[in-house]
Amino acid sequence: MRHAICYVSNKNKEISDFQIQELLEESASNNILSGIKGVLLYSEGNFFQIIEGEKVFILSLFETIRQDAGHHGIIQIVGRDVEQDAFDGYKTDILSGDMKYQTSIPKEYTDTLEGLPWDLKKIMERMMGTFIDTH
Ligand SMILES: Cc1cc2nc3c(=O)[nH]c(=O)nc-3n(C[C@H](O)[C@H](O)[C@H](O)COP(=O)(O)O)c2cc1C
Questions:
Q1: 50 lines ligand 1 (CB under 6 A)
Q2: What gap in Å lies between CA 132 and CA 135, rounded to an integer?
Q3: Angle CA(82)–CA(64)–CA(39) in degrees, nearest 5?
Q4: Using alpha carbons only, what angle is made at residue 64 by residues 58 and 66, rounded to the nearest 5 degrees?
């Protein structure tokens, strides 16, 4: 059984830009090795993440992430069982100032949501759009 979790959180003050970069790279290499898919975005003090994969791995990873001192104020938006291989790959990015306030979500981000059931895809697209601040 595969499972998807989507949440937002606030970066802790003492975490530097360099540590964020390292965190994104580490999470990408760990997740690719464990077959975990989704997206991790950072923008102006906040994280937006979707993780999808084997349910036992996802629940255990989310517990680890929850306890990570790098962030706080985790708000889980979605936690749901999904069809096999709903997501396409794993993408991490730091949003620059000029990427905020654009009119649509970059295709490279929405592509990661392609295989999802339409209702879940809509929810996640809306959350991602709100995070990126598209209008
Ligand atoms: C916002 C945020 C997202 C994270 N996402 C992942 C992730 O997707 N995969 C991952 O392996 N670690 C992720 N981590 C890091 C984990 O919390 C943890 O530090 C990492 O898995 C290394 O754990 P270990 O030292 O027990 O091996 C994330 C941390 C934060 C703060």
A1: no
A2: 9
A3: 50
A4: 100
Nearest to 100 by CA among 46, 60, 57, 55: 46
Answering whether pTM is above 0.70, one says yes
Residue 27 CA, ligand 1 centroid: distance in Å: 6
Domain that holds residue 94: 2-133
Q: How far is the CA of 70 from the centre of ligand 1 (A)?
A: 9
CATH of the domain at 113: 3.30.70.100
Per-residue pLDDT tens over the stretch 43-78: 989 999 999 999 999 999 999 999 999 999 999 999
- How many structural domains is the chain composed of? 1
